[in-house]
TrEMBL record:
First and last residue of the signal peptide: none
Organism name: Paractinoplanes ovalisporus
Domain of life: Bacteria
Protein name per Swiss-Prot or TrEMBL: STAS domain-containing protein
Taxon lineage: Bacteria, Bacillati, Actinomycetota, Actinomycetes, Micromonosporales
SUPFAM superfamilies noted in UniProt: SpoIIaa-like (SSF52091)
Domain STAS: 1-102
């Protein structure tokens, strides 16, 4: 079963633990299969903290046996992932906005 998890327009460093905790709470008690689709289309200005948050959310999803997909990534966000050496991470998890969650 696919779980959709959306992030807001801005993410601060203080938000990261809360986001991870929120995702863990959402996944707890559900079968360990399916995807987590993280909708980032609302992000106004992605930055290094955004990349950190998404990396930590991916780890959280993995701890719950889920694959982590990103939907709605802007060219700015894609560029940040590449700049930080995480281009492969995003390429492996990217899901376009045109693809509806299953």
């Amino acid at each position: 079963m696919t779980v959709v998890f959306a992030v807001g327009a801005t993410i601060t460093r203080a938000d990261v633990p809360c986001l991870c905790s929120g995702l863990a709470d959402l996944l707890r008690g559900r079968p360990e299969s399916g995807d987590v689709v993280c909708d980032v289309s609302a992000l106004a200005r992605p930055d290094v903290v955004t990349v950190e948050a998404l990396a930590r959310l991916r780890l959280t999803a993995g701890r719950h046996g889920r694959r982590f997909l990103i939907r709605g990534a802007t060219p700015e966000l894609l560029g940040l992932f590449s700049l930080m050496g995480l281009g492969g991470f995003l390429a492996a998890t990217r899901k376009t906005a045109a693809e509806p969650p299953t």
